[in-house]
């Protein structure tokens, strides 16, 4: 004979009260509705099927002369502002291809013992970033798992571009000017300044540390990508893991070109220099979301156009024939090396 009480207990769905720690496994429907779906407000008319209970896919309608552009990236180096960072790195990838971002699919993995408030915080960061960029959260998956020891967010971004107008990393040609927007090391500086505030405070004034922490306001490269596409650009590559040295190598390798880069022309904030000096790391190998690498047949004109849009950009060198990737520092000359482990991992 089956125990009615046992049957009742089996049939009762697992519910979590706010503030209670969540169990391992797919998050309960009550949490999904309360801390995920209720935070999604930004909508796009192109999205025909979006996030909902039981929905495993999203659907997007495009015009006949448009193409899908898709990118995906995880955030693993930090748990600080993870929702904001995860959003920007994927949107920047889409922007580097000359695409307009439409929506994102999220995978959020939380360690065992996580509280619902942590999930709600991450989703809140994501929705703020989505609203600023007019991007819709279209769906995804949320789970508590023993496989991670800190929150992990993976973002799959969906964008659109006009047919024949895609920009690739492989588009640089000999003779092109090489430019960078804003400054290198912005993302890494912000992360380190937030996670190592007390250590830095032993040497530096809080004003410098707070300024370094605020560099996350520069993380989006959507504005420069849009301006560059309108002005004419042959290649774009956002500077992420491996820093500007890694991005330069990848641009050259993808395009099959050589480089001559003036090290002193690469723009870097003083706060980045101080933070890197404190921890003995190289700013040129530090994760640099917010900085876009561009190749243009007329770099000075492109730099002026970007300046009109309020975006700092400078020409740092040229693409050349051959395979030599040379870094010039006054009379010193050395060769660029393939990307290495990001400098951030030496600190956090």
What are its keywords?
about 350 residues, alpha+beta, seven-stranded mixed β-sheet, five-stranded mixed β-sheet, 14 strands, about 35% helix
Number of helices: 11
Q: Can you tell me the overall shape? A: globular
Average pLDDT number: 90
Strand content: 15-25%
**If you compute it from the alpha carbons, what radius of gyration comes out, rounded to the nearest whole angstrom?**
22 Å
User: What is the rounded distance between the termini?
Assistant: 58 Å
Within the largest sheet, what's the order of strands?
9-11-8-12-10-13-14
Order of helices and strands: HEHEEEHEHEEEHHHHEHEHEHEEE
Percent range of helical residues:
25-40%
Number of strands: 14
Q: Which structural class is indicated by helix and strand composition?
A: alpha+beta
Describe the main β-sheet briefly: 7 strands, mixed
Runs in which pLDDT lies below 50 for 5 or more consecutive residues are 4-11
Give a verbal description of the structure.
The chain has helices at residues 4-11, 29-36, 82-96, 116-133, 186-195, 197-201, 206-213, 222-231, 243-255, 270-279, 299-308, and strands at residues 25-26, 47-49, 59-60, 66-75, 100-111, 136-145, 152-162, 177-181, 235-238, 258-262, 292-296, 313-320, 325-329, 332-335. By secondary structure, the protein is α+β, with helices and mostly antiparallel strands. The strands form three sheets. Strands 9-11-8-12-10-13-14 form a seven-stranded mixed beta sheet, with helices on both faces. Strands 1-6-5-7-4 form a five-stranded mixed beta sheet, covered by helices on one side. It has a two-stranded antiparallel ribbon with strand order 2-3. Helix 5 (186-195) packs across helix 10. The longest helix has 18 residues, at 116-133. It is globular, with a radius of gyration of 22 Å.
């Amino acid at each position: 004979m089956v125990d009615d009480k046992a049957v009742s207990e089996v049939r009762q769905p697992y519910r979590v009260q706010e503030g209670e720690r969540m169990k391992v496994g797919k998050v309960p429907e009550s949490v999904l509705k309360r801390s995920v779906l209720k935070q999604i407000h930004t909508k796009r008319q192109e999205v025909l099927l979006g996030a909902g209970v039981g929905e495993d896919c999203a659907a997007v309608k495009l015009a006949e002369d448009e193409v899908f552009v898709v990118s995906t990236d995880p955030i693993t180096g930090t748990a600080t502002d993870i929702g904001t960072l995860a959003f920007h790195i994927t949107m920047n990838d889409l922007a580097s291809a000359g695409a307009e971002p439409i929506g994102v699919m999220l995978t959020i993995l939380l360690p065992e013992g996580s509280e619902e408030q942590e999930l709600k915080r991450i989703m809140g960061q994501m929705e703020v970033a989505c609203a600023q960029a007019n991007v819709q959260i279209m769906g995804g998956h949320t789970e508590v798992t023993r496989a991670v020891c800190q929150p992990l967010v993976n973002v799959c971004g969906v964008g659109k571009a006009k047919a024949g107008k895609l920009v690739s990393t492989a588009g640089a040609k000999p003779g092109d000017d090489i430019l960078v927007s804003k400054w290198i090391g912005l993302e890494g500086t912000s992360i380190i300044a937030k996670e190592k505030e007390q250590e830095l405070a032993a040497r530096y004034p809080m004003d410098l540390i707070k300024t370094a922490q605020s560099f996350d306001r520069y993380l989006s490269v959507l504005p420069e990508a849009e301006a560059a596409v309108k002005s004419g650009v042959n290649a774009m590559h956002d500077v992420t893991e491996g820093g500007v040295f890694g991005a330069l190598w990848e641009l050259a390798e993808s395009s099959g070109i050589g480089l001559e880069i003036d090290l002193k022309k690469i723009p870097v904030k003083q706060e980045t220099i101080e933070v890197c000096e404190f921890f003995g790391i190289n700013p040129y190998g530090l994760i640099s979301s917010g900085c876009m690498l561009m190749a243009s047949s007329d770099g000075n004109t492109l730099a002026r156009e970007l300046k009109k849009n309020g975006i700092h950009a400078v020409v740092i060198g040229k693409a050349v024939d051959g395979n030599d990737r040379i870094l010039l520092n006054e009379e010193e000359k050395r060769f660029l090396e393939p990307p290495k482990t990001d400098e951030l991992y030496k600190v956090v």
